[in-house]
Amino acid sequence: MTTLDLELLRTFIAVVDHHSFAGAGTHLARTQSSVTQHMQRLEQQVGVSLFEKRGRQKQLTEPGLQLLRHARQMLSLNDDALNSLRESSLSGVLRIGSPHDIADTILPPILSHIARSAPRLRLEIDVGRSPFLMDDLHRGKVDMVISTRSDPNLEGFALRTSPVWWICSAQYIHQPSEPLPLILVDEPSIYRRYALEALERANIPWRQAYLASNLIGIKAATRAGLGVTPRSMEMLGPDMRVLGETDGLPRMPEVTYYLWIRPNTANPIARKAYDLIRGSQGL
């Protein structure tokens, strides 16, 4: 009987989580051709096609979806077994900063992994806006931060790359002939910058329909149908929908969420936890 290669499964999961072979290569620090070779070898091992082309995108086949569920379970068991031997004695306080938009998506699996691997570790979570959390990290108020921002003075790695979409209420009626009503967060904001630059390049008029200081206000205004907001896919809820090129709106760049720590962190637990999370990502 064939034994599945865990390294190939890690690459497979990275392709799915980062929505492309190129995104997986960036996350795993591999070339795109290396990712392609991994997927070809994995398909040879399982004897079925894992991806199929739909338009410009590659999507999982039904066997691919089945393998994805098993792959996540297998890697989780593998990592748990190793980490339980290495990290079970880790104890103390770890302070993590996270932006609002990933508190329901990227953050929970990370917290779950830490809790399983280091059950004696006490977690303190600070949910806020990325620029202010990065400032807190520099000042030592938190030990690590998840953020879309880059900082050459910090040490970090990519957790996930997500598309940025024009998100609105499911009941919102788009009027292409009128200035686009934008729901924006105040500065500084990468999503605000991406949206305004994209609209300017496309010569699309817009107006500020609502200004908020946090994601709670953005979500409320979006659900109320006040306009359209530029956010990553992490914000999309069941009562929302996405506008795109077929609606006359331009594409925006993707965002990458990174995990950051200070290279000279004074908290030894932060370094061990950082390495633990990095190992769980296959890096």
TrEMBL record:
The keyword Calcium does not apply. Keywords: DNA-binding, Transcription, Transcription regulation. Gene3D superfamilies: Periplasmic binding protein-like II, Winged helix-like DNA-binding domain superfamily/Winged helix DNA-binding domain. Residues 4-61 form the HTH lysR-type domain. Pfam families: HTH_1, LysR_substrate. It comes from the Bacteria. GO terms for molecular function: DNA binding; DNA-binding transcription factor activity. Belongs to the LysR transcriptional regulatory family. This is Transcriptional regulator LrhA. The gene is lrhA.
